[in-house]
Structures are given as structure tokens and as C-alpha cells.
Amino acid sequence: MALTADRERSYLWQDGTVRSWLLTTDHKRIALLYMASITVFFILGGIGAALIRMQLVMPTGAILSDETYGRMFTMHGIVMVWLFLVPSIPVTLGNFLVPLMLGARDLAFPRLNLISWYLFVMAGLLVVYGLFRGGLETGWTFYTPLSTDYTQGRVLPVVAGVFLSGFSSIATGLNFIISIHQLRASGMTWYRLPLMLWALYATSVIFVLATPVLSITLVLLAFEHFFRVGVFDPTLGGDPLLFQHLFWFYSHPAVYIMILPGMGVVSEVVSTFCHKQVFGYRFVAWSSISIAAIGFLVWGHHMFVAGTSLYAAVVFSMLSFLVSVPSAIKVFNWLGTMHGGAIRLDAPMLYAMGFIGLFTVGGLTGLFLASLASDVHLTQTYFVVAHFHYIMVGGMVSAYFAGLHYWWPKITGRMYPEMWGRTAAALLFFGFNLTFFPQFLLGYEGMPRRYATYPAQFQVLNVLSSAGASILALAYILPLIYFAWSLLRGARATDNPWQATGLEWRTSSPPPTENFVHPPVVTHDAYDYAALDQANIAARQEVPHA
Amino acid sequence: MVRVLYCWILLMMLLAGELTMARLGFGSAVCACAVLMGLVIIFGFMRIAQAPPLAAIFALGGLFWLVILLSLGSLDSFTRTNFAVGSAMSSRPDHAPALPDESR
Amino acid sequence: MPDHITPYDTALHRDESAVSGMWLFLASEILLFGGLFLIVLVYSHTHAAGWNAGVRHTSLMIGSINTVVLLSSSAVFTLAVEAARTGDRRRIIHAGLGAAGLGMVFLMLKSWEWHLEFEEHLFPGTNFSISGPNDGGAQLFYSFYFISTALHGLHMLVGIGLILWICDRTRRQTGREISTIPVDIVGLYWSFVDLVWIVLFPVLYLIGRN
Fold this sequence. Notes:
The structure holds 3 protein chains of 3 kinds.
Chain A: H1 2-9, H2 18-22, H3 27-55, H4 66-85, H5 88-102, H6 110-132, H7 146-150, H8 155-182, H9 195-227, H10 240-257, H11 260-274, H12 281-294, H13 310-338, H14 347-370, H15 372-378, H16 382-412, H17 418-445, H18 459-489, H19 529-545
Helix pairs in contact in A: 3-4, 3-5, 3-6, 3-18, 4-6, 5-8, 5-9, 5-16, 6-8, 8-9, 9-10, 9-11, 9-12, 11-13, 11-14, 11-16, 12-13, 13-14, 14-16, 14-17, 16-17, 17-18
Chain B: H1 2-24, H2 27-45, H3 53-79
Chain C: H1 11-46, H2 48-57, H3 60-86, H4 89-119, H5 135-172, H6 180-206
Helix pairs in contact in C: 1-2, 1-5, 1-6, 2-5, 3-4, 3-6, 4-5, 5-6
Pfam families (chain A): COX1
Subcellular location (chain A): Membrane
Keywords (chain A): Electron transport, Heme, Iron, Membrane, Metal-binding, Respiratory chain, Transmembrane, Transmembrane helix, Transport
């Protein structure tokens, strides 16, 4: 009976009309709207990847023409970066969790939040329109003068879509920053914030300060392409490298948009499933901020062989090494947290451990690319492809799934099937490594990226990679199925199924529309399991008297 | 009311100064006048001193990141020795489409 | 908890958040225009001769008048912000309409200036009228000129729209207490548009003219 009462008060069921969903300003519902949208885009980008891997089974190319291949990896890149990875954790889990973790009723600007979703959907539609009306062959980086003077593809709608998605990002970032500053519950000091919020704060800083530079860069590109005037045009003495500088001023920090929220999720999950305070809380918190800050200073390492100044290259190389320090701090602190903890290997923890391993490989191979000498050999090869997929797919997608499994009971009020969750986590780890580890070897041996064909000597490794991709696809499809199943048939979740400490676990699963029946008061540090255990014991002793 | 009037007079004087300096060809003095005009607007019209402290933090943050963009972004162009920016290495090849292809 | 201030505790708390949020948005806008100024910084040094040739072709007269108009418009709207604090409805509307009117004057002068430049074939492309060894730099300057003034003009249009919205809601909200925050926030935006122009004006018209 209590369950049905809760069910009717929960945000999911309080008003079930389509209209109430499409005009909602409830951050939890907007999170679900976002989740549905990015799942569609993830599938679309995934189809692109599948076609690429099928093509590369044969050295001469199996199914696509050279031109179609170029358009396919461009679609894969653009959709995955701007319509899945950049929004992924912030707009879904972040949107859902920021007010809950703060102990607030909603984000600072609820209507802006809804507007940002509409902007995102419009952006996605524009991009998809451009891609289906022919696509473009520039790669996700839109380098000039290819994108302005030589392209035969649909640059304008795609660029307009990416431009709009930028405004959606800025709105989200602005909302998070103001919320974290202004809406903390009574007693929630900065050093009591869950590490997820520190990570999302750092991400939001990048959203707000880097995205506008992408916007203006795309405006310049569109202007040059449409009016045929020179901005970066070398025939007028313009500098195409200036485009690359502006582009990477956003897009390198955007790499940290695509990893920092994952780091936040992993901090939460590792602490919960080790039932242990995060080792070195303040170091982990500040390492998020410093990753975001240093991340703005390193973009030149994408351009070492593009003809930039040697002096600039040296400066950017040294700064790039610097960013590995806070990243390493995080990895060591997660391991420190696990050391001596009572580790439970539920699905979220398996995903999080996968994240730690894959992120470490991705991060360490990044050092090869930050060094000037080895970068000259490795840049524009599959080594780079493998490196950033280890960070973005191995890292971010693992973390996204870790977070989805971890908060699924809170979001839906239902448990996912644990055994299937563990299977999918194991498949993801195995399939991912089989797909991308061979690409390190391919790149080291000199196979260039972005070609539709390759010399026959690389075939074995390419076949291995494609085989891995099919396992990876299975690892993505499985959760889609069992999550859908659990919505209908999953066991009812309790309020705090993992015995976690965050404020989000103190309200019902799923939470009521106003998040908390009584405004919460925070009296302990984050991850204070001793206090939680004591409260549990006290609650158990009280039951007989009740 | 009076405060706004003072600010406006100050801005007009600075603008006159800026135009004079431009006529005399002192580029840095022009920049100084522009910066002063900006400060008059930020403190006189936008009242940043009366705004919540966060406002000043955000404004300074925006300026700081602007400095990063301008300094690190121009570092390459100003120190490039291999090819000067926009050296006439490249001219438009014949196969480049001269006009946007409207047929698509 | 009254619904109209959700998710805040008090109206003051809500207002502070709104003002801080606006400043954060303006910080974001700084970086938007920042990308343009990186282009100025690089090209005005690496192509100084052609760039300055471009600067010499702009209309200093119209530019200066426009600067006066825009600064005055911002000053007038600041009067509306002060009027909102004292609760003077009529003065908000008068000052708002004055500021919006001056903004329109700016845009009209700007489009006249654009018209003249199109007549003189100063729009970059095949018919570009500045020729000689430095025409590339001059074309780069005029690309920047048109993009930056268009972007600034777009911001002005948005600002004028916001000001008219303020006037309209002030007119319709008789009987209730005036909410000062929307006026404040539009004022911040309008002054920011001024700030951008204050940087653009010397870059487009002054530095490099002599």
C-alpha cells in the first residue's frame, strides 16, 4: 500500500500526459527526455562505427566507396562527439542528480533547462538532416579549407546543428554552476559535496567558457563557406592554422568534458561498493578543477605536425604533460580507496573498474602523443584513434553505464537484473580491448587513419578489431534490452539499495516531484559510512518499539 | 540620475581623448582610453561593485580565459619561423570549385 | 514554500542567483567575441599593411556618431534600472523607449554605413575594390569587419527586443510591485553590448588609421 502511495507521488507518475512531459521543468523528467534522445543518437553513431568496421575487414574495402567511407566516419565522429559524448553524463545523470545531491528542489533555472533540451533536439535534427542529405567528408574537425572551399558535402546544416548544440551545452553548464553555488542544502559545505558535483562543476566551467569559442569558429566557417569570403583562406594570406587553434581551444577542453563527469561517477561508485570514504577527498576534488583549468592550455598538441611554430609546440608539449598529474592523482586515489575496502563486485563496480583500467591505458598512451618526437611518428595513425577511444569509449561509455546501473533504481524505482548487468560489463571490457588494442599496434606499424583501404599486411589486426566491435555491439544492446525489461518487471528498489551515503539515497525511489518531503540537513562529510551504519543500527533497534 | 550623467560625461571625454590620440597616431593611448571607457561602464552602469561577489568572480574568470585564448592562441603565429603566416606557398589550384555548387 | 520562487528559499536568494547567472552568461559571451579578437590580434600584426589599408577605408564619422549614440543609449537605460529601484513605472517605460530608440538609430546608421561599403565594393570577394600587393590583408580586414558588426548588430537586435519586452511588462503590471531583476538583467546585457562596441570601435576605425 505504501508502495502505491509512493508511486503516485513520484515524479514519474504524478501527471502522465505527453504534454506534461514535453512542457516539464522538472529536472528529473528533463533528464529522462535527454536520456531517450542521446540513446537514439548513440545508436545512429554506432551504426556508423559498425559500417566502418565492416568495411575494414578487407584490405581493399568490403562494402563502401571511398567517398561514402569518408562520410561515414564523419557522421560517426560528429554524432558521437556532439550528440552523445559531450552531453551524455552531464545532461542525463547530471541533470537528474545535481539537485538531488545538493538537497535542492530543482536546478537554478528550470525553464532554461527545458529550453536547452529543445535546443539539443533541434541541433540533433539539423545534424541528422545534413547527414542524411549527403553528409560531409571533413571529419568531425571541419578543417578549413577543406570544409570551406573544397567540400562537396552538406556543411551548413551540420555546422548549424553543432552550433545549436553548443548553446544547449552552455545553458546546462550555466545551470549547474549557479545551482552548485546557490542551492546547497543547509549544512552542505563545499567540502561535503559529493565528488560527482565537483566533477560536474569542472565540466560546466568548460561548457561555459570553451563552447562559445567553438560557436564563433563555426560562425566564421559558415560565413566563409557561404559568402565565399576569406577568413582562413590561404590564397588571401589567411591562416588555416588559426581555424585549428580556435577549433581545438574548444575541442581539447571538450575531451575533458567527455571524461570529467565519468570520473565523478567512478568516484561515487568506487566509494559505495568499497563502503569506504574516498581516499584523499580534497585531492580528488581539486584534481577535477585543475584538469578543467590545465585542459585549456594544451590544445596545441593536436597540431604538432600541422606546421605550427616550434616554440609553441614545445610550450604545448610541456603543458600537456602537466595535465597527466591530476589525472594520475585520481587513479591512485581510486586505487587507494579500493585498498582494504570491502569490495562488492556488482555491475556498477565492474564498469567502474573497467573504467580505471582503460582510462589508465588511454592516459598513458596520451603521453606518447604529447611528446614531440614520438608524436611525429604516431600522429594521424590508428595509434591516435585507439588512444582517444580508450579515453572516450573505454572511459566515458564505461562510466556512463556504471552510472546508469548505479542510479537506475533511483531513477526508475526498479532493479536491473544483476547477472545480466555483470555479463554486459564483462563483455564491454573484453570487446572494447579486442576492438581497440589491435589499433595501437596498427598505428605503431604506421597504418594511417581515415582511409577506406589499407595494405594487406594489416589485415589480421583489422579483422581482430572488427571482431571485437561485434562483441562491443552486443555489450551495448544487452543493457538496452534488460533495462527495458526491468522497467516493467524489475524488482522494486528500496530507497538505498547500495547502502550509499549521498543525499539522493535519502529520498524515495523514484523520488517525489519536489525531491525531498522535508528539506534535508547535512550533518556529515560525504562518504561518511560510519555515520550511515550507526543510523542503520539505530533504525533497526527502533523498529520493535514502533 | 546625477551619477549616470557624470558617467556619461566621463565617457564622452574619454571618447574625445580616444579620437585625438588616434589622430596623433598613439595606438597604445587609444587602447588605454578604450579600457577606461570599459571600466566606467562596468562600474558605473553595470554596478559590478554592488552585485553579488559571484558576479565579479565570473567576470574576472571570463577575462582570464580570454587572456589564455589570446596569448596561447597567438603564440604560434608570432613565433612561427618555418613558414610565415599566410606565406604565398599556396595558390588556389585549378580543380577547386570556384562557386558553391548549387545543384545539390 | 511559495511556488513562484521555486527552487529558492527567498526572493532575494532568487534575485542573486539570476544576477550571478547573467554575469556568467556574459563571461561566456566574452569568449564568443574573444575568438574574433584572436583573429584581429594575429592578422593585424602579420598583415599590418593590408589590415591598416582596410581600417583607413572605414567611415570614421559614422563610427564616432554611433559610438556616442550607443554610449548614450546605455546611459539612458541605466536610468530605467534606477527607476525600477525607486518603483517609478513611467520612468522605466520612458527611459526604456529612449534607449531602444537610440539603439535603432545606431542600427540605421550602421546599415547606411554597410550600404555605402557595398557601393564601394568593400565586401570581400572577386569585386573587392582595394587592389595592390596588400589586398589580401584588406580582404581579411573586411571579412572581420562584416562578421563582427553583423554579430554585434544581432546582439543589438536581441537587446532592443528585450528592452521592449521590459517596457511592455512594466506597462501591463500595474497594481503589483515592480520586479527590478528583469530590468537589471536586461541592463547588464545592454551595457555588455556597449562594451563589445567599445573594443570594436578602435579596432575597426582607429588603430592603424594614421
